[in-house]
Design goal:
mainly beta, single chain, calcium transport, 225 residues, four-stranded antiparallel sheet
Length: 225
């Protein structure tokens, strides 16, 4: 379900469907036990929990700003004592995944959660799976703010297989204890395209290294190879 705050200039309608510019959407709401709309893709759940199988009644995401061509969201659960973590929002684009014009009602949220009220959420916090995630996330959030790297040279490395989301930003450098700094984005030779931001989600391991799915919101179709 969309909560839209935009003008008709940011809408695109066909006979079959209505598309909106995701950059102009101020707020999104995701509801438990509701499905997305789908045209090119099959409808699916609006909420897609990952490591922690928790679903509040509603998750509300507000667009804090538009970084380059993609919104940066701040997401909260409708229930107190819980933080929504490592979230990404996926929508069906009119001309592919990178299109900013998305099918109305097609967005879903992939996320995890940590709980500050252990008594209220005891059925989640007592599970070994959650305790493992909570321990990992306590370290992860010292490095990252929902995928955006925090610069702190006094921390120990974390296992790349445990990272759910990574964000790479144009004109930003990597960190290094060896003093070897590189651009976060390094295009292949001959590549003429450089987005302002690339978001990569960990799909799981191939047995040795994580497999990543990367997306960028652009004004034109683009695939990463």
């Amino acid at each position: 379900m969309f909560v839209l705050m935009l003008s008709m200039a940011y809408e695109y309608t066909t006979k079959e469907a209505k598309y909106v510019d995701i950059r102009k959407v101020k707020e999104l709401k995701f509801h438990k036990d509701r499905n997305t709309n789908g045209r090119a893709q099959a409808p699916g759940p609006q909420m897609r929990p990952q490591k922690v199988d928790y679903q509040p009644d509603v998750i509300t995401c507000k667009s804090e700003s538009v970084f380059g061509r993609s919104p940066r969201w701040q997401c909260k659960a409708s229930e107190a004592g819980v933080d929504i973590t490592e979230y990404t929002i996926e929508c069906e684009g009119r001309d592919g995944d990178s299109d900013n014009f998305v099918l109305e009602g097609s967005c879903s949220i992939l996320y995890d959660a940590v709980f500050s009220d252990n008594k209220k959420y005891q059925k989640y916090t007592e599970s070994p799976k959650y305790q493992k995630y909570d321990s990992y996330f306590s370290n992860y959030r010292n490095f990252f703010d929902n995928g955006v790297y925090r610069r702190n040279k006094n921390l120990s490395p974390i296992n790349v297989n445990d990272i759910s989301v990574l964000v790479f930003e144009k004109d930003e450098k990597t960190e290094s204890k060896k003093g070897e700094f590189y651009p976060q984005m390094m295009a292949k030779s001959g590549n003429q395209f450089e987005p302002d931001q690339i978001v990569c989600r960990n799909l799981g391991s191939d047995g040795q290294m994580p497999v990543w799915k990367c997306r960028a919101h652009l004004d034109y179709p683009l695939q990463f190879n």
